[in-house]
Amino acid sequence: MAVLEIVGVTKRFGSLLANDGITLSLDEGEILALLGENGAGKTTLMNILFGHYTADQGHILVRGQILAPGSPDAAIAAGIGMVHQHFTLADNLSVLENVILGRESLWSWRQDKTRGRDHILKMARDFGLEVDPDALISQLSIGERQRVEILKALYGDARVLILDEPTAVLTPQETASLFETLRRLVAQGRSVVIISHKLHEILSVSDRVAVLRRGAIVGTVMTADADRDSLAELMVGRSVVRPKAEPMEPGDEVLRFHAVSLGEAKLDAVDLSVRAHQIVGIAGVAGNGQADLANLISGLARPSAGHIELFGETPARLTPQSVIAAGVGRIPEDRNAVGVIGAMTVWENLSAEDIRKPPASRYGFFLDAPAARRRAAALIEAYDVRCKGPDAETGLLSGGNIQKLILARALSREPKLILANQPARGLDEGAIAYVHERLLAARARGAGILLITEDLDEIMALADRVAVIYRGRLSESHAVSEVTVPELGLMMAGQQSERPRHAV
Amino acid sequence: MDVIEILATVGFWAATLRIASPLIFATLGELICERAGVLNLGIEGIMTMGAMAGWMWVFKGGDLWGGVLFAASVGGAFGLLHAVFTVYFGLSQHVVGIGITLLASSLSFFLFRMILPAATTPPKITAFQVYEVPYLVDIPFIGQAFFTQTPLTYLAIAIVPVVWYGLYRTPVGLAVRMAGENPAAVEAQGIDVLAVRGGAVVVGSALMAVGGAFLTMSAFDAFYFGMVNGRGWICIALVIFASWRPVKALLGALLFAGLDALQVRAQQISGLVIPYQFFLMLPFVLSIVAMIFMSRRATYPKALLVPFRRGERI
Amino acid sequence: MRFEPRERVSVLAATVAPVAGVAAALLLCSVLILWTGESVVEAYWLLLKGAFGTKFAITETLSRATPLILTGLAAAVAFRAKFWNIGAEGQLYCGALAATWVGTGLLTLPPVLMIPLLFLAGALGGGAAMLVPVVLKNRLRVDEVVTTLLLNFVILLFVSYLLEGPLKDPMLMGWPQAAPIIDEGVLPRLVERSRLHLGLVVAVAAALLVWLVMTFTVWGYEIRAVGHNAVAAAFSGININRTIIRTALFSGGLAGMAGVTEVAGLKGYLTLDLSPGFGYAGIAVAMLAQLHPIGVLASALFLSAIYVGADSMSRGVNIPTYIADVLVATSMLAVVLSIMLARYRIRFN
User: Fold this and answer.
1) More confident residue, C349 or A216
2) C188 vs chain B: nearest CA distance in angstroms?
3) Which residues contact B195 (CB under 8 A, 6 or more apart)?
4) Could you identify which of A59, B81, C151, C197 might form a hypothetical disulfide with C265, taking C-beta atoms 3.0 to 4.6 angstroms apart as the criterion?
5) How far apart are CA A444 and CA C340, in angstroms?
6) In chain C, which residues have their Cβ closer than 8 Å to the Cβ of A343?
7) Partner residue opposite B285 with nearest CB, options C142, C154, C328
8) Cα angle at B113 between B107 and B115, to 5 degrees?
9) pLDDT beyond 50 at A503
10) B191 → closest Cβ in A84, A102, A109
11) What's the predicted TM-score (pTM) here?
């Protein structure tokens, strides 16, 4: 019997049609994968299922009963549990408190923490999700936090578990462990919906795949009958080939880290080298020091030991201004919170890094809006930023277009060193291909690129060399042609592989 | 008399408790609001309104505890107004808070003038009388110092463990704390974030108003303009000083009140040498110092000042 | 229920919203007026007449608007950077103090030099009052809301001490008041037999200056950027600390100038009741103007009309003058809400 039936669900946000008449069902004991590129509408659909949003049209049946819309309470009561992509956990509170929140009536005068603790420990044992109930979330690693997020969903005896991009923050080994847990859950008669855009993972864990494209279901296949290429084509609607790097002779060194350390344990004696015409990839699971590395190069942090060489010189202090002036282009990890100011216009954001120089201003004081607008119009054209013009409000642009704006700002002055931090995260295939093309073009022109990313496919396709960051320590870098993904995965988890390596 | 001698008098400690009482109520009230993620800058106005409301109830013939309840209700009503604007509509908590302070203050002065058009000395009401706790009052020194207070002071002390228990040992308290750390987590568990935050602001504001009512119904026995005199703002500093913890809030209020009581007595001694204005400045200067001291280590509730907009594209 | 940003916010909506808010406030306050037993129409009519009915009334309204324009600008500039300066009241007094120190006999210069000097002193005085809060914020991350607020009380007490002591005018019998500003420093009257003085011109000029800086200079850009998103602004190379300091000094300086207009224009000498809350009212002025410097001119005039009109109205009908403050506070809240409704659509689902 179908445990879940989604019937004709449609959802709009303003002029954006996020979900278009979606009809889908889930059987008991099944692992259904919801596949689609970023922006296809997968998360929106699951948010409707879980009650974060209300559908404009359509309804949902859980075991034949209509599910009351717009209420996570109703979803939880119906046995639906959700493991969110961005964890819904409070850092300053304990695991126990995060899990038992809302499980007892808010009108009750007493809180039964012992029962909660026992239940958590029992579930942890049953499903292999070991965690200390009294630890504060801030003390846990990302993988452990995800375990808490799963425990939260299961605590209410959820029969249908939704996981939204669960493997984005896991090493390959942790991913395998998660999938093992899912199989155990399903063996007990529960059902799982897993949202992902990673083809090989979907192929390895799911029973059936529903493919979403531009808000509509374009196909449902049994996993056994599918392969990477057919799924990729369904997902994007055309055969998409992501650009790959061609081998190139590296030039002079543009960036060098000499035993750089930061803080107590954020970064520990990191050695790094990037040369012109070269892309060096830094692989690693989020939270191992990538942000600190990026901040050092961006001029937002100062090393506590060691020094940084930029284009052969060792500046005393790096600030965002000095780094920009020296010819470094930076693509930040969080385009919305750090990369642009949503409330300001496109031309204002494009001029943000050189506002005190022509054409944006004269004598470093008087804004020259007409000249800045003209330059912005040229950049919009050159970098294919889809917007209403230089005066458009940046926050209204789509993620892909915001990233193109950032690319325009970072690359148009032909920087000799580029820091690209998760440049393709959350983008649809078309935008990803564009970003990669631009980066490769910059490399061909002579830039050295430091590519920090959690996506191993991206590194294998673009980078010349790769190093793995784990707990603030950077491994030796290896030529990409000489490593395999499983080996990288081991290093990301802190384990070295056996094979001997060549020196840098 | 030097400082040690002052500390040895019963009068000093009794005064400390008395001065601390409105601060305890108001600091706890603000603490609850901020724990839920809402900065309530309406505190000064709500305290003024509470002072006026309590006084008015008794002046019009009502009983004292009825007055306290009335003040609390009025405070809660202003809290509801604040919550509708900041929690429901997600407007700037700074701007709305100042607006509420201006509104509550001016409304209380307006109503007071309506009731008493003649601008002469305000009439007195029969305020709470000192209640000597039997047996305990006979303990030497401590009895006279701590157990000869008005009932509202005893209530203030009693409220502290209640708030502590409410925040740390009940499901709703956990929801309030979570709303101030990560409201998305609250929503994901099926709880209405707006209701939790709004409820916290209403309850907190009610407490603040009781703190104001203490001034007219316990400390002095009349209402006059400028009565609250910045106590509300001092309580905001005290909340930070107390790291958003109820017990520390009590200690902070007592410490502060003690320094204030000390200052009053020291003024009497050396008033001829140092002008009285400098003594009056002390509470405010100390509040700033307290904030400097604590800001280094302050672990703000993570979602403080961040509005929660339901259904925004996640 | 959720809020969806409207795709286009028409200019019409942006200007109608504050007016709608004010209308709602007038409506709500009419309830209060009804409760006093007076006629709403008569009360508002007296208010209007009191503010604009005679030539003298208009000059009163304009002269009351002068300090409100300046404190409104102070709040508008600071709030643009999300620097919550609630200390305009204290900064005003610091400006008045500085003008008193310079203008009661320290130097004697011809008016064309003396008057600008007084304003400069006032601006520096107001800016100086900002130093402590701004340093505390930049170095120690101490919230500026509480520090600026608490400083108001400290400054007022300090002024009280000075007026009873070192600054006390020896000519007067015991009344705490400073010596008068010398003739060369007194701001000339703009209209005969009225209290309207040159300060109004200075205030309007200040509004224009603020508008020019905010719209056409790099400083204005940086202030706006930091106010919208300080993290992104830092990333793009803007020096946050320096921007905050600049904003704070600018803001404090404007409030300080308000003190000068009162001391050297309206009253002629420093007293403790120089400002009946102009600093706090400035916040309402700024919010009603949506932080726009030219809009501040209109909203300051509006608030001033209410205050002046209410004074006059209370003599004709039996309504306490506090109705003015209630009206201002209600307007502020109503306008903040109506602006939001103009920018967002409500979706019930």
Assistant:
1) A216
2) 34
3) none
4) C197
5) 49
6) 228-229
7) C154
8) 105
9) no
10) A102
11) 0.91
Q: Is C193 helix (H, G, I), strand (E, B) or coil?
A: coil
- Which two tokens mark C271? 């007293």
**pLDDT value of residue C57:** 93
Distance between CA C223 and CA A441 in Å, rounded?
Answer: 36
Contact C278, C68 (CB under 8 A): yes
Shortest Cα–Cα distance, B249 to chain C (Å): 17
Distance from CA of B36 to the nearest CA of A (A): 13
Give me the percent of chain C exceeding a pLDDT of 70: 99
Neighbours of A484 (CB within 10 A): 12
For A328-380, what is each residue's pLDDT tens digit? 999 999 999 999 999 999 999 999 999 998 889 999 899 999 999 999 999 99
Strands (E) in A168-324, as ranges, are 191-196, 208-213, 216-222, 253-262, 267-275, 278-283, 305-310
Q: How far apart are CA B116 and CA B98, in angstroms?
A: 27
Q: Which residue has the tokens 């809009």?
A: C295
Mean residue pLDDT across chain A: 89
Listed by number, the residues of chain B in 273-292 with a beta carbon closer than 8 Å to a beta carbon of chain C are 275, 277-278, 280-281, 284-285, 287-288, 291-292
Residues from chain C that touch B109, judged by Cβ atoms under 8 A, are: 320, 322, 325
Residue-wise pLDDT for A242-286, tens only, equals: 888 888 899 999 999 999 999 888 899 999 999 999 999 999 888
CA distances from A16 to A39, A397, A424, C51 (A): 11, 12, 22, 51
Among residues of chain C, what percentage have pLDDT more than 90?
A: 72
Written as one string, the DSSP assignment of B155-182 is: HHHHHHHHHHHHHHHSHHHHHHHHHHH-
Is the CB of C232 inside 8 Å of chain A's CB atoms?
yes
- State the DSSP string of C42-59: HHHHHHHHHHHTSHHHHH
d(Cα A378, Cα A408) in Å, to the nearest integer?
A: 10
Give the pLDDT score at C174.
66
| Neighbour order of strands in the sheet with A267-275 | A267-275, A253-262, A305-310
Q: Are A1 and A63 in contact (CB under 8 A)?
A: yes
Among partner residues A337, A343, A353, which is closest to C237 by beta-carbon distance?
A: A353
- Residue type at position B53: A
Residues of chain B contacting C93 with CB distance shorter than 8 Å? none
**Residues paired with residue A330 on neighbouring β-strands, in sequence order:** A419
Q: Is the peptide bond before B275 cis (omega within 30 degrees of 0)?
A: no
Mutating which of C8, C213, C217, C235 best tests the A interface, going by the most A Cβ atoms within 10 A?
C235
Chain B nearest C-alpha distance from A132 (Å) = 19
Euclidean distance between CA atoms B79 and B38, whole angstroms: 11
From chain B residues 24-53, the ones with a CB under 8 A of any chain C CB are: 41
Contact check, Cβ <8 Å, A102/B177: no
Lowest model confidence (mean pLDDT) among A108-122, B23-37, B39-53, C76-90: A108-122
Chains contacting B with at least 3 CB pairs below 8 Å? A, C
Question: CA A148, CA A145: separation in Å to the nearest integer?
Answer: 5
Beta strands A253-262 and A216-222, pairing class: unpaired
Contact A5, A25 (CB under 8 A): yes
Distances (CA, A) of A269 to A254, A283, A289, A323, B282: 19, 17, 12, 22, 50
Distance CA B276, CA B264 (A): 9
Evaluate whether ipTM surpasses 0.90: yes
- pLDDT tens track for A95-146: 999 999 988 888 888 888 888 899 999 888 888 788 899 999 998 888 888 8
CA distances from A307 to A282, A327, A447 (A): 19, 19, 22
**A352–C contact, CB cutoff 8 A:** yes
Q: Strands A65-66 and B148-149, how do they pair?
A: unpaired
